[in-house]
Amino acid sequence: MRLGLLHLSDIHMTLGDNSVISKYPNIIPAIQEYLFEVDAVYVIISGDSAYSGNEGEYEKVINMLKHIENQIVELKKFKPRFVVIPGNHDCDFKDTSLYAVRFAALC
Q: Which residues form the Calcineurin-like phosphoesterase domain (predicted)?
């Protein structure tokens, strides 16, 4: 079995404009030739998905990851697995509801 790893880090998604919004639709097309060679894909998000741990930031990240997932499903006919490792920006120090943990659980 050949395993593919897609590693994303330091997305720093904010509630406002984000440069990553215009770039993420191009991730899978950029690596699609490699996806044809693998039997499974893990998408690893290591740290700082959000900028300030705000729930709205996580909603935007989840939408981004769903788009990436849909692109992989369309190409490979299987869903990727997600591994999320929260970073310090994934903490909302004003709120103790642990959005980072909720985000990781959704993936």
A: 5-93
